[in-house]
Amino acid sequence: MITTDVLIIGAGAAGLMCAAQAGYRGKSVVVVDMGKKPARKILISGGGRANFTNEGASPENYLCQNPHFVKSALSRYSAQDFIDLVDRHGLQYHHKTLGQLFCDDSAQDLVDILMTECEWAGVAVNLRTEVLSVTKNSQGYLVTTSDKIYHCKSLVVASGGLTMPKLGATPIGYKIAEQFDLNVLETLAALVPFTLHEHDKQRFDGLSGISLLTEITSEDGTSFQENILFTHRGLSGPAILQISSFWRAGQAVTINLLPEYNLSDTLTQWQSEQGQKSVKNLLATLLPKRFVEVLVKEGVIADKPIKQLNHQDIAALSDYLHAWQIKPNGTEGYRTAEVTLGGVNTDELSSKTFESKKQQGLFFIGEVIDVTGWLGGYNFQFCWASGFACGQAV
């Protein structure tokens, strides 16, 4: 049996951050993970360049049953704190839109930094190690793995959610929570593409690869202005991934296909200036031509000179394109989702230390708990913040 002060289940963003912080405080720390490599989710994120934080990260960018829960951790370890860390290691990175930061070269550079921090802090990281059982005794926790048995005073569950099962995602974190009588909220795939009903798939067959700037709104009134992308399975792109966290089965989403225009005014102006031109050719200057052709085929867009439209025609076309409604069939699920919505109920945890209120020495951090960030580096920032806060407490 190996005795250690802290055992961390999961060598991902939150687990490695926590490990380094605890190690620097003089604690003996062991991290166990089933994977062949550490931080596999970091490696594939952001197209292999890891969108590792967002400069504008604030509590408003997170979904949680208790919206105040994230405030403490985010205020104590900000995006700038993590930027300072990677700057010390000389990471080359660049800014994209909306405050997103990406590695210039490869996400591996970021994983190397986390592993270096763990090495400097004296942390042991044991890969290809499956956790078989966890029990509690008067001195702490006994964790039996496929390799060894560990005894620890503090047990940190940083096992992630159910997303991307090919990378080894399992429900072990939720099982440990339930074993120790913590409430686990329903989990759903989030930041995930939509699939469409068969009739809509047939309508949009041939549009795969088309992308356009939109403003998308869910039934609860949440909106995002970003691109949507037609795929052979349905709809994807940043706007779709964002809204998927707010969408529930059976609901529709409303998409403003021309958020930067007042189409009614534009159509009226075209009538006076370019009256002989066809409606479809003029609209093809604002929208992808293939998409316009689909709407012509369906009779939404009239195949006639624009001067022949009356006020009612203009109002109807404007309303349709500014508030295009579509009801997804579902999502692509955990296979392609970036995060898991739901998880360990934050009411069960201290927002300052992430320790269970019911079980002394048991901590939950990162994606396994009911905190889900928007697309754009927010989820990693919560992993860094929760890992840091927990690492100061274990």
Automatic annotation (TrEMBL):
Superkingdom: Bacteria
InterPro entries: BaiN-like, BaiN-like_dom_sf, FAD/NAD-bd_sf, RsdA/BaiN/AoA(So)-like_dom, RsdA/BaiN/AoA(So)_Rossmann
Domain RsdA/BaiN/AoA(So)-like insert: residue ranges: 189-339
SUPFAM superfamilies the UniProt entry points to: FAD/NAD(P)-binding domain, HI0933 insert domain-like
One Pfam family matching this protein: HI0933_like
Cofactor or coenzyme needed: FAD
Keyword hit for Flavoprotein: yes
Residue stretches making up the RsdA/BaiN/AoA(So)-like Rossmann fold-like domain: 5-392
Keywords, comma-separated and alphabetical: FAD, Flavoprotein
Name of protein: Membrane protein
